[in-house]
């Protein structure tokens, strides 16, 4: 970005998007075998209302949402922390940030292997690792370590923990009502992006020239994740009673 300007980021993303779009048109078959007629905005909103009245769906959907809050809060504030708090050049951010998606990919790749035998344990384990990673980052800052690794390494551990139960929450939330899987997927994605966008703006608003506001917000999001899971999952069997009233 320093060499080609900030506009180059958008050009690269646009070029990659065009390549993926062309590839999908040529190679990806249509998954909707029987076309479904759109019944209007009112019908869609009623479906969303029924989904949001489902405690299990909300538990799963908002769990996924707060996983995204942790990630997007970090990527929105970390560049400013690198430059203004750690006094590092912008180019170094890219080097250290690689650890974050690597942690997420490793966590996701292990989900399918471990969840067969340890479903509930995976959720507890992932949440514990995530909270532990963020607490470690706070402790390292408190003892005066101002190196980027003191921020990025613990957060990559936290992201690894968040990635472990990620699919376990997204898929059950969407599959809670198979007849509304498309609506559930769309609503879940909307909640992820909208709440994460608000969180990203809020992190910038509370920034005080330290990493603590970001880390505390990530910690709160991780705790809310656990609370929502405990609140929503135990009553899964009752959820169909609500959606049938739509």
Describe the structure.
This protein has 246 residues and is mostly helical. Helix content is 76%, strand content 0%. Helix 3 (55-85) runs parallel beside helix 9 (181-206) and helix 3 runs antiparallel to helix 10 (212-232). 33% of the residues are buried.
What distinguishing features does this structure have?
246 residues, mainly alpha, Growth Hormone, Chain: A, 76% helix, globular, disordered C terminus
Mind sketching the topology for me?
Elements: H1 7-27, H2 41-52, H3 55-85, H4 90-97, H5 99-114, H6 119-142, H7 149-163, H8 166-175, H9 181-206, H10 212-232, H11 240-243
Briefly characterize the structure.
The chain is built from eleven helices and no strands. It has 246 residues and is mainly alpha-helical. It has a single domain (45-243), classed as MFS general substrate transporter like domains (Growth Hormone, Chain: A, Up-down Bundle).
Corresponding CATH superfamily: MFS general substrate transporter like domains
Instruction: Calculate Rg over CA atoms.
Output: 20 Å
- The backbone outline, from C-alpha atoms, is globular
- Runs in which pLDDT lies below 50 for 5 or more consecutive residues are 235-246
SS strand fraction: under 5%
Q: What is the CATH top level name? A: Mainly Alpha
Total separate domains: 1
Main structural class? mainly alpha
